[in-house]
């Protein structure tokens, strides 16, 4: 049995449309700059309220612009149509490391969010409902899905990795090569009906799939009632977990309620869990956030402790407070310290990355990770493969 299916009506990029996913930015101004430099970018469709000339307008008010931009990209030849296909995906880093994935559709009714809910697709992280509503509204307006949910194949990962690497070797020249800001080359190949497509779908969609990126997008598909959602199914060998840090624009209370130890060097991402590093313009500290002996693995993860001990108990902030910015691993510690030094933030919180063992333990128990706690790399590029919802 497989829960993965071909894309009935796909649009494949011919170049110029690839972009970081909408939630990968720590600074909204970056999105505006990217759209200004490349109006065909998928960001112009996914984040229409950040486009030049629209900044300050409400997201919903800008949806007609998103529809028009997607149609214009098609009319200008930035996409070609393909029917009943899966799409091979290879990402090559500057050091030569390669990641593989398969673009396809996955059954929405297989999403499981708790131990007592059956399903082969495990969604493991709390979400911000406002973002989910925006994703639903965008899909309803455009009738397309531009960003995939990244799923980790846990049961047949090694076999899928081998099969995808061989299929890419056999496929010849890619349909497009898109290079991201980190210098990684993203390549795609469409695969139509036949033995190769069926074998890849069986491997990709057999066994449990863990949401590595795209918790909001998967919930949006459920909320909208779509029977299937766009996904890239990848392999454990293809990904790594990087830090997921935080910036706080306003300190609402002093930090001296915490047990702080001054750092002798610059604040960086801690090498191991158990302590977090804090940076303000007054200095840098290491802080141990007290754990609860009788609590489970989720409640004692560093990210959960930051939400509870630092934000809620010390600063009086909810996780969704607009004064908190979640900053993924593509932004180094130097960048976060620079935001504080420049006065655009008052506090940087640097958190050790979640370990693979902890991530697996949480998922096997079908529990939820804290919000924005796992930054998987490399991420799938939005706008390379678009699924039309007809």
UniProtKB/TrEMBL annotation:
Q: Which domain of life is it from?
A: Bacteria
Cited Pfam families? DUF1015
**In its UniProt entry, what is this protein called?**
DUF1015 family protein
Q: Which InterPro entries match?
A: UCP033563 (IPR008323)
